[in-house]
Specification:
The chain is an alpha/beta fold. Helices cover 36% and strands 22% of the residues. The chain starts with 8 loop residues before the first strand and ends in a 9-residue tail after the last helix. This is Glucose-6-phosphate 1-dehydrogenase.
Length: 488
């Protein structure tokens, strides 16, 4: 059993940034208001901006006022939460600043957790600085916010840098999708119900589709996004983590080692997409002008203000080459400026081996299990049922949904931001929902092979209209196999 050892102190890098304002401070406040933070835990914020403790508390209060839902606001809880906060400005590239930071943080013998949300180019300087100031010892653990590199080589470089000061059991790589309640529910659905496991394999499942579609364009992320693109931004982490949870073997127990061992096996089993197969197994796109949310919007290049061959859409046909999944295609699709905002997994089962209804006109559809992660959270099973009637003109069969709405079923339970779970796990030292080094590197190996195929074939993104489901080639990707994307 995992023994949790809560730390006495938390250090937030990037404490004045967008992530801190929207997610980290509201999450920490939520944990504090519910009495889940360790008694006496101090939270030190650090960033380049100049702040005193008092002015940072004022800054944090403004963030809570703006980003906390109305039903979570409590004046008394906010006041006592802000008392936990202190601040130290830092030039991450200046080694002398880390000594001042260490003095501000104080004694770390009771344990320190560091949340590092900073540009990857600063990782080396930050790790070296922390180490030099005694903020990387055996009682210190570090949480790393993505992006952790942009390919295998840069990812290894970052991992080596971190490993020079922090052992793997003190390194917490964050993928916020793993903090989502519905994502964790995939484990409960698969391994807490006996009727799924016998058909959760190539004998029972025809194909699996994972879609993460966004309606937004670049927003404030132009500089990062144009250097990354959809494949690195979404597939290399969130989508492959979802694929692993769907495809992995049953872990022996619910803990960080067992679950991550099984996920790593899936990543190692992903079939490499060779350059010759890249045009057949992948589609890239870039949004052009169109209509989104009832408004006319610009294309990617106009938004960016310069020419670019960065993909804002990618669809991939993937295979997991092991006994369980031999021959089952996993279709992955993600893009910006698409029809709707949606994250979901659709599992299409194989048709029944023989239809007894066909001679009476009854048409069967294969069963589909839909796991919707956002914006709504539900699990839906599409089943065949007979329409009421005397059947004199033949039997009428119709697909009907069996719905488990997690929003409705657990209406009385507080809906938590993914970062609440992840920050609490970091503070308590539970690595189950964090990503291990071998997972990250196996993911990058697969992603790098796809990018190499795009270069070898000089594949440029195909334009698609904003407000659509992406380029028509993405439809052809599945329809060649007689499969249709789950777009309802």
């Amino acid at each position: 059993m995992h023994v949790r050892t809560p730390v006495a102190k938390l250090l937030l890098f990037g404490a004045t940034g967008d992530l801190a304002q929207r997610m980290l401070l509201p999450s920490l406040y939520g944990l504090h208001a519910d009495g889940l933070l360790p008694e006496g835990l101090t939270i030190t914020g650090t960033a380049r901006s100049e702040h005193s403790d008092a002015s940072y508390r004022k800054f944090a209060k403004a963030a809570l006022d703006e980003f906390l839902p109305a039903d979570r606001k409590d004046e008394k809880a906010a006041k006592s939460f802000l008392e936990r906060l202190q601040y130290q400005s830092l030039d991450a590239t200046d080694l002398t600043h880390y000594q001042q930071l260490a003095e501000k943080v104080g004694d770390v013998s009771g344990g320190l957790a560091i949340f590092l949300s900073t540009a990857p180019s600063l990782f080396e300087a930050v790790i070296r600085g922390l180490d030099s100031a005694g903020l990387a010892g055996a009682t210190v653990r570090i949480g790393l916010e993505k992006p952790l590199g942009y390919d295998l080589a840069s990812s290894r470089e970052i991992n080596d840098t971190v490993a020079s000061a922090f052992s793997e059991d003190r390194t917490f790589r964050i993928d916020h999708y793993l903090g989502k309640e519905t994502v964790q529910n995939i484990l409960a659905l698969r391994f807490g119900n006996s009727f799924f496991e016998p058909v959760w394999n190539a004998r029972g499942i025809d194909n699996i589709q994972i879609t993460i579609s966004e309606t937004v364009g670049l927003e404030e992320r132009a500089a990062y996004y144009d250097g990354a693109g959809a494949l690195r931004d979404m597939v290399a982490n969130h989508m492959l983590q979802l694929l692993a949870l769907i495809a992995m073997e049953p872990p022996a127990r619910f803990d960080g080692t067992a679950i991550r061992d099984e996920k790593a096996k899936v990543f190692r089993s992903l079939r490499t997409i060779e350059p010759a197969d890249a045009p057949l197994m992948s589609v890239t796109g870039q949004y052009a002008a169109g209509a989104s949310g009832g408004e006319i919007v610009k294309g990617y290049i106009d938004e960016l203000g310069k020419p670019s061959t960065t993909e804002t859409f990618v669809a991939i046909k993937a295979h997991v080459d092991n006994w369980r999944w031999q021959g089952v295609p996993f279709y992955l699709r993600t893009g910006k400026r698409m029809t709707t905002r949606r994250s979901e997994i659709a599992i299409q089962f194989k048709p029944v081996p023989h239809s007894m209804f066909s001679n009476r006109g009854g048409l069967l559809q294969p069963n589909v299990l839909v796991i919707r992660l956002q914006p709504e959270e539900y699990v839906q099973m599409l089943m065949m049922a007979k329409e009421p009637g005397l059947d004199r003109d033949g039997i009428r069969l119709r697909e009907v949904p069996l719905n488990l709405s997690l929003d409705a079923e657990f209406a009385g339970k507080p809906r938590r931001i993914a970062y609440e779970r992840l920050l609490l796990d970091l503070i308590e030292g539970d690595q189950t929902l964090f990503v291990r080094r071998d997972e990250v590197e196996a993911q990058w190996m697969w992603i790098d092979a796809i990018r190499a195929g795009w270069v070898a074939n000089d594949m440029k993104p195909k334009n698609y209209a904003s407000g659509s489901w992406g380029p028509s080639a993405a439809i052809a990707l599945t329809e060649r196999d007689g499969v249709t994307w789950q777009d309802d």
